[in-house]
Design goal:
- There is one protein chain.
- The protein is rod-shaped, with a radius of gyration of 32 Å.
- By secondary structure, it is of the alpha/beta class.
- It contains ten helices and twelve strands.
- Strand 1 and strand 2 form a beta hairpin.
- The longest helix has 29 residues.
- The strands form four sheets. Strands 4-3-5-12-6 form a five-stranded mixed β-sheet. A three-stranded antiparallel β-sheet has the order 10-7-11. It has a two-stranded antiparallel sheet with strand order 1-2.
């Protein structure tokens, strides 16, 4: 049984006339008769009642027609989906993010992309920067939004966001009264930081800034997540240094101060393997470059992509 047999049967079932069906199919009537006989032989039952005056479907024929119409519709849908995948309009992307990325402008961007390309599914997964780098090398993700660049010859990157360093303090802390705070002002404080396992990239940058000011943070508590850091700060376990993306969050009990003496910024970088040219990823990459060309635009969903 081949698709041409099912197609011939479907047309004949609609026309109920061999001559008209043959004309619609653009084949000779004897050829149509052979196709139907071959089909009935394969199915093993009579699908049509034939007389010299009329053609009618048997009960088995009506059941068979309903089923093959479902199959044909599924095949047509498969063709459309395959074409959409090839054109980059449908697919699946594996996207990794850090705390700073997901607390910054990344949700706004992903929402804009999802609205523009609803048939491209994004599987989002949290990964620290160092884990993202390994996952990219092992091709376990398509793109990572990480801290800083990934200087590897097989990777391409694009600076997605750029934040300032800020101090987080419980509202009762004496330094809250200081409007112009510096990192050097924190030298004698207890610090709450993300742990070394999940926050290596950020800690390395922060420690370098502290060494330049002749001190090393006295770490009193560590947490694995941003929420853990915020909770420990509110509880009075110490102060913290974080990204200015924290201003996007609603968090009671914390005072935020920009660090005036830190000129360095904290970049969030989109990184992907340059050989990744799957159509769905190409659509994502082009949208990223076009919409986020001006990184700080207010509403990326207003762009045409």
């Amino acid at each position: 049984m081949e698709f041409r047999h099912m197609r011939a049967f479907t047309v004949l079932a609609q026309e109920l006339h061999f001559g008209k069906a043959a004309t619609t199919l653009r084949i000779a009537q004897p050829a149509l008769t052979r196709l139907i006989r071959q089909l009935e032989d394969d199915v093993g039952v009579l699908l049509l009642e034939r007389t010299t005056r009329r053609v009618e479907l048997t009960d088995a024929g009506r059941t068979f027609l309903a089923e093959i119409q479902l199959a044909q519709a599924h095949i047509e849908q498969s063709v459309v989906r395959a074409r959409h995948v090839a054109s980059g309009m449908r697919g699946e992307l594996r996207v990794a993010y850090t705390d700073f990325a997901i607390n910054g402008r990344l949700p706004q961007f992903l929402n804009a992309f999802g609205s523009r390309f609803p048939d491209i599914r994004m599987n989002l997964v949290y990964m620290p920067t160092t884990v993202q780098q390994l996952a990219l090398l092992e091709q376990k993700i398509d793109i990572g939004f990480m801290i800083g660049d990934f200087g590897h010859e097989t990777m391409e990157s694009y600076q997605f966001d750029d934040d300032r360093y800020v101090a987080l303090m419980p509202n009762s802390h004496p330094l809250c009264a200081t409007e112009r705070l510096t990192l050097a002002d924190l030298a004698r404080e207890d610090f709450v930081l993300g742990n070394a396992e999940n926050w290596t990239a950020f800690r390395n940058r922060l420690f370098a800034l502290c060494r330049a000011r002749n001190f090393f943070p006295r770490i009193s508590q560590e947490a694995s997540s941003s929420e853990g850091i915020f909770g420990l700060v509110v509880a009075g376990a110490g102060i913290s240094v974080y990204s200015s993306c924290v201003t996007n969050l609603q968090r009671k009990g914390i005072t935020i101060r920009m660090l005036e003496d830190v000129g360095a910024t904290l970049p969030v970088t989109a990184v992907w393997e340059r050989r990744n040219r799957s159509p769905g990823f190409e659509t994502f990459r082009r949208f990223l470059m076009a919409v986020w060309g001006q990184r700080f635009m207010v509403d990326p969903s207003s762009a045409n992509g």
